[in-house]
Please model this.
Amino acid sequence: MHDLPLPDFHVADPASTTGVVLQSVVKSFQDRKVLDHLDFKIDRGETVVIIGRSGEGKSVMLKHIVRLLEPDSGSVWIDGEEITGMRKQRLFEIRKRFGMLFQGSALFDSMTICENVSLGLVEHSGLSREEIKGRACDCLAMVGLQASENKLPSELSGGMKKRAGLARAIAMQPDYILYDEPTTGLDPITSDAINDLILKLQAELNVTSIVVTHDMASAFKIADRMAMLSEGRIIYAGSVDDVRHTGHPVIRQFIEGSAKGPLSVF
Model:
């Protein structure tokens, strides 16, 4: 499908590289290859938005970054450490540096919002009960939910659940935040509020943000850099301005939402 040559994102020495590096990552499910020798690097402090059609493996890529999935071959590096095959004890330490907003927020229905936000702190922080509650309240205040700490998830709107999920994602004071379709299922106004919140957290916490989305309005607003995943590989990466003005036929078709072009509809 791609007539243009693929860019080379291979990193010569990932052991001496900061940020996230994926090297020749291959992942198949049954007979379908989802990631096909995927190479990509994400620098510390930037917001990278991964775009692509549904089913192309964007969420699969995210899960490899925190080793929720193991590659069939290839390697994943976090700040110079290879997490592929890493012992569980060290892997758990690496994972503490990541927060993740899941597509469905993944809140526990039987727990209050404050308890949901506090969960990682209770399990891993070693803080006192008072310190945990204080940090959870601070995180809820950052996302505008300070009045909802005692509510259950069922009492929240979709946008409020997303914000609660974000509060939980930042509670462990991570270096990296992964966002899996943060605006899916939200109306345009609520989606824009979530975008503003992502920008606010980026500015205030100086985290590295990796966002998976097919919401182009969101992508153009929050990204420092955008990359497109197609047929198991990153076929293009560039600044927001680069993407707006690219002549790459696949990127143009995707950002314009056109049924006509090299990407087949069915």
